[in-house]
């Protein structure tokens, strides 16, 4: 998108996961998938990238899809914006082991733990869902990125042990972290993610018309995405873009236009909050030009 060009490459790639530092910071792609399954793209929209925290919206949806057993989750994780860094240890301790929302790291670890209890394979459940909804059977975890995260994931390990010390994990810390790193390290393209996120634009319906979630749960996930999905810059994203969205430090942002479709923009260079500068700029330009916003 021409309007994103001035900011492409500005910012910094995530350097605390060494495997991500090798990505070209000038890459850019964007895809729109309509609720009917049509897909349009520009730039590097079919190039796989590390989805990182974008995977968290899928772990949440799959956990809630288990009905009353999924709803147990909300006793263990909140739904409020954090106002702090996504990997804050201080907040978790002061709030007695209950993460503020499911999209900060501690909250996503709890969701991964719950999904693993329900399915026996949390990472496999996420991979399988993404493969089915995107139609890309080759989509998979990048083992090299997962290993890099595990080797340097001391803060995530600390968060997981904090959670366990408060009785907020059901599975062994090592197991939960392995599955957490595996789903965050999935490599997918803008096309793949735009298609896979379509259930939120279709109010809970999968691509084949089967219901993944009740309409009310899809609405609630979109609400939490709007208020919590962009780390501690969710308010700025809502102000500029006006859509529910989830970002990842791999540079991707998946945004939902309820009743119309889903957008995925990707560019690896990040702002200080951990969100892609060019992707935010492109989504801002898209909603400004089209008027497609929830407001």
Keywords:
single chain; 295 residues; alpha+beta
Structural summary, described in words:
The chain is α+β, with helices and mostly antiparallel strands and about 300 residues long. The protein is built from 13 helices and 8 strands. A 5-stranded antiparallel sheet has the order 2-1-8-7-6, sandwiched between helices. A 3-stranded antiparallel sheet has the order 3-5-4. Helix 5 packs across helix 9. The mean pLDDT is about 95.
List the helices and strands and how they pair.
Layout lengths: L28 E6 L4 E5 L5 E2 L4 H10 L3 H4 L17 H6 L10 H15 L2 H13 L5 E2 L1 H10 L1 H12 L7 H12 L1 E3 L1 H7 L1 H4 L13 H14 L5 H7 L4 E3 L4 E6 L3 E6 L10 H14 L5
Antiparallel strand pairs: 1-2, 1-8, 3-5, 4-5, 6-7, 7-8
Kindly summarize this structure in a few lines.
The protein has helices at residues 55-64, 68-71, 89-94, 105-119, 122-134, 143-152, 154-165, 173-184, 190-196, 198-201, 215-228, 234-240, 277-290, and strands at 29-34, 39-43, 49-50, 140-141, 186-188, 245-247, 252-257, 261-266.
Label the overall shape.
globular
N- and C-termini, Cα separation = 23 Å
Strand order of the largest sheet: 2-1-8-7-6
Helix-strand pattern: EEEHHHHHEHHHEHHHHEEEH
Largest sheet: 5 strands, antiparallel
Briefly note the structural class of the backbone: alpha+beta
Low-confidence stretches: none
Strand content: 5-15%
Gyration radius from CA atoms, angstroms: 17 Å
Number of strand elements: 8
Number of helices: 13
DSSP helix fraction: 40-55%
Name the average pLDDT.
94
